[in-house]
Specification:
10 helices, single chain, Dipeptide-binding Protein, domain 3, 10 strands, eight-stranded mixed beta sheet, 360 residues, globular, two-stranded antiparallel sheet, alpha+beta
């Protein structure tokens, strides 16, 4: 029901008497129900953006395109997933968390990046509408650094990194994974294999992971791709008992590069509650986050330079694979009044002013 005490309502009071929130996990089903008139507004899956755009052209829906305030990423667990530990003890000293036998080596994580053909992923899964990312910043951010290099698709670089890291092709059979031979954290003979999980109901994510399974397989990785219930996935993600997880991450508004502290500072490496779930710990990144919060006068130019240094460090250390962000196409039914999506604020920022006609 409408909250009569809602502060700063645009028209002085909340117009809609209330609303029903429907939790539909399948993106395609969401759009189909919107087209059928069963939902007030919806976001199109990237592969169906043109369908929603066509409805706007035809006048059968109100349509708006906004830059996404989120990214799609793959988190790579660097610590021992069988024995999750916090990053720091009570005195702030680093705790030995062990190492993930495969992903604990930065060269292996970088090899995954070089083995990824992003253009092919974008075309097949995102309808060519994805925006490639090199690190933890949206292109719309005041701290974004366009000079941070992407990991370009380079099979030769991938092979060289894996050989250097002690993962060898011992049988010249592309159908079998490389094996450890002098690897940092894995016993000799261990296959180069890990599990990649995502939540059910996202067609684009399923396509991306299927393609990555093929691309990484060609480089000598054996990837067990699994789609599981979101809550089960989140438990493993936050509990740090996973190998690799694909999810979406949202950024705050207004844009705040200090958001990175939640994902990459050792103090937030807390199994079960913190969001530094990859157990990443680079002391210089921690220093930058602290320095940027103490800049005199909060000088944005000085802060931007610090954050740009951090983005390069994150890019090189590769605790995440930053896949993409995108332009999001939203639609509302034609009868909805005061529907006014805005960049950064999204669709629902003024829902207290919406007028939604009710049929008899």
């Amino acid at each position: 029901m409408a909250d009569t005490a809602y502060p700063d309502a645009i028209d002085g009071y909340v117009i809609p008497e209330g609303y029903v929130y429907r939790n539909i996990t399948d993106e395609t089903l969401i759009l189909e129900q919107f087209i059928a008139g069963d939902l007030t507004f919806a976001q199109a899956p990237s592969a169906r953006n043109d369908d929603l755009r066509a409805m706007g052209t035809e006048g059968t829906a109100q349509v708006s395109e906004l830059p996404a305030a989120s990214i799609q990423f793959i988190g790579l667990n660097q610590a021992d997933p069988t024995n999750p530990q916090p990053g720091l003890d009570e005195e702030g000293n680093a705790i030995d968390q062990g190492h993930h036998p495969i992903l604990g080596d930065v060269r292996v994580r970088q090899a995954l990046m070089y083995a990824m053909d992003w253009e092919a992923l974008n075309k097949a899964a995102l309808n060519g509408e994805g925006v490639q990312l090199a690190s933890h910043a949206l292109p719309t951010s005041w701290a974004y650094d366009e000079t941070v290099p992407f990991y370009e698709y380079d099979p030769e670089k991938t092979a060289a990194l894996l050989e250097e890291a002690g993962w060898v092709d011992d049988d010249n059979d592309p159908a079998t994974p490389r094996v450890a031979q002098g690897a940092l954290y894995a016993e000799d003979g261990t296959p180069l294999a890990f599990k990649l999980e995502t939540n059910t109901g996202n067609d684009a994510s399923e396509t991306i992971e299927t393609l990555l399974q093929e691309q990484w397989g060609a480089a000598g990785f054996q990837v067990d791709f699994q789609q599981i219930d979101f809550n089960t996935l989140l438990d493993a993600f936050v509990g740090q008992t996973y190998d690799a997880v694909m999810l979406f991450w949202g950024f705050s508004f207004p844009d705040n590069p200090d958001d990175a502290s939640g994902n990459f500072s050792a103090s937030n490496d807390i199994p079960g509650s913190g969001f530094n779930v990859t157990s990443y710990n680079n002391p210089r990144v921690t220093e930058i986050l602290q320095e940027a919060n103490e800049v005199a006068g909060c000088d944005q130019t000085v802060r931007a330079d610090l954050y740009k240094e951090m983005f390069r460090l994150l890019r090189d250390d590769a605790p995440w694979i930053w896949l993409d962000t995108s332009v999001i196409v939203f639609g509302a039914q034609t009868g909805v009044q005061n529907w006014d999506p805005l960049p950064g604020l999204g669709v629902s920022w003024n829902e207290d002013a919406w007028v939604v006609p009710v049929s008899d």
